[in-house]
UniProtKB/TrEMBL annotation:
InterPro entries: ICDH/IPMDH, IsoCit/isopropylmalate_DH_CS, IsoPropMal-DH-like_dom, TTC_DH. Its EC number is 1.1.1.83. Belongs to the isocitrate and isopropylmalate dehydrogenases family. SUPFAM superfamilies: Isocitrate/Isopropylmalate dehydrogenase-like. This is D-malate dehydrogenase (decarboxylating). GO terms for molecular function: D-malate dehydrogenase (decarboxylating) (NAD+) activity; magnesium ion binding; NAD binding. Its cofactor is Mg(2+); Mn(2+). It catalyses: (R)-malate + NAD(+) = pyruvate + CO2 + NADH. It comes from Acaromyces ingoldii. PANTHER family: D-MALATE DEHYDROGENASE [DECARBOXYLATING] (PTHR43275:SF1). Keywords: Magnesium, Manganese, Metal-binding, NAD, Oxidoreductase. Pfam families: Iso_dh (PF00180).
Length: 360
């Protein structure tokens, strides 16, 4: 659906975002050179606390118009709580993008990385995706509080699940499962306790599965599913969940691989009507900013996800292979400090770039 040259808005944001995004850009360009496609990059300084200090707002007034022209947004991290409160910086940028651009899929990989030890003794090979519904479900503003300050004080918050909302996230998850060798989809439910919305979710899963006869579907209640994530993480392929369940699973999944700090996340509008956003999971790390010591791998994972989304799966795989190769050989002068080495952000980036461009 997307065609080269791919139009990409580059938004570094704050803190180490400004250090890891340039490494990400270099790797995108290396992939473009190797695989013969083009990336048309435009850099933006908004969605940052610097911009906020100059303009008293996080984004220019015409941001929707400006960003809609792009195929994808390559994002670093936003936030610098000493200068601007987080609710202003995050709600005034990232969270607006998610809503305005109807990025109804949140996608995260859980993948073991060679040379990065995880918390489990014998986890096997972990390689699966978590697909989280990103717009409705348990996260709504429907509800309220009454009898303030009295004995009867009461709060209510509603869960909203629409057929359209469930079906479109399931369709994305089934398509993804269909495209993978294992073709296996796991649905997170809790229909034994949440007796209206979750049985409805299960019913939509059953309905959707009729359209995907090759995809093997299994369904687990969220509590035992969390246990399985820890006990047999290598048995999953694609896992789909509501906004809340997906939120929990998308931290737990990467955490069992030990690589949560290296993880990336995609906020995706699969229709292509609006641009999708790809970013590392970590924040702007003000404590280490400006020292060229941040680990750029999360940003590179984000680049890999973006290339897969744009229709360059080989280049996307290549980034992962290069990361595995460099981290796997474990040379201190190619690893940043958080990985036990002495390399700078740029040196680790150089090593990955060499790996990608090396003759096979
Ligand atoms: P953080 O992820 O920025 O940092 C947590 C710890 O991990 C820090 O000690 C940091 O030095 C370390 N760290 C993070 N990324 C690293 C990397 N690539 N290499 C080496 N070490 C790394 O989370 P924190 O400190 O809670 O938040 C800092 C700011 O980032 C806040 O303003 C927060 O709101 C924002 N934030 C933004 C996100 C986004 O843009 N999506 C996500 C999470 C936090
Ligand atoms: Mg979370």
């Amino acid at each position: 659906r997307f065609k080269s040259p791919y139009k990409i808005a580059v938004i570094p944001g704050d803190g180490i975002g400004k250090e890891v995004v340039p490494v990400g850009v270099r790797i995108l360009q290396a992939c473009a050179k190797k695989y013969g496609f083009e990336v048309q990059l435009e850099h933006f300084d908004f969605a940052s606390c610097d911009y906020y200090e100059r303009h008293a707002k996080m984004l220019p007034d015409d941001w929707v118009e400006v960003l809609s022209r792009f195929d994808a947004l390559f994002f670093g991290a936003v936030g610098d709580p000493k200068r601007v409160p987080d609710h202003i910086s995050l709600w005034g940028s990232l969270l607006l993008f998610r809503r305005q651009f109807d990025q109804y899929v949140n996608l995260r990989p859980a993948r073991s990385v060679a040379g990065v030890p995880g918390p489990l003794r014998n986890p096997g090979k972990i390689d699966f995706w978590i697909v989280r519904e990103n717009t409705e479900g348990e996260y709504t503003e429907l509800g309220g509080k009454i009898f303030h300050g009295t004995q009867r004080e009461m709060v209510v918050q509603e869960t909203v699940m629409t057929r359209v909302g469930i079906d479109r996230i399931l369709e994305y998850a089934f398509d993804l499962a269909q495209s993978r060798p294992a073709k296996q989809l796991t649905s997170a439910t809790k229909s034994n306790g949440i007796s209206i919305t979750m049985p409805y979710w299960d019913q939509r899963v059953a309905e959707m599965s009729k359209r995907y006869p090759d995809v093997k579907v299994e369904s687990y209640h969220i509590d035992i599913l969390c246990a399985h994530f820890v006990q047999k993480p290598s048995s999953f392929d694609v896992v789909v969940g509501s906004n809340l369940f997906g939120d929990i699973l998308s931290d737990l999944g990467p955490a069992v691989t030990g690589s949560l700090g290296l993880a990336a996340s995609g906020n995706i509008n699969p229709t292509g009507k609006w641009p999708s956003l790809f970013e590392p999971v970590h924040g702007s790390a003000p404590d280490i900013m400006g020292q060229n010591i941040a680990n750029p791998i999360g940003q590179l994972e984000a680049g890999s996800m973006m290339l897969r989304h744009l229709g360059q799966p080989q280049a996307a795989d290549d980034i992962i292979l290069a990361v595995n190769a460099v981290l796997g050989r474990g040379k201190p002068d190619e690893l940043t400090r958080d990985l036990g080495g002495q390399a700078s952000t740029t040196q680790l980036g150089d090593a990955i770039e060499r790996e990608i461009l090396a003759p096979a």
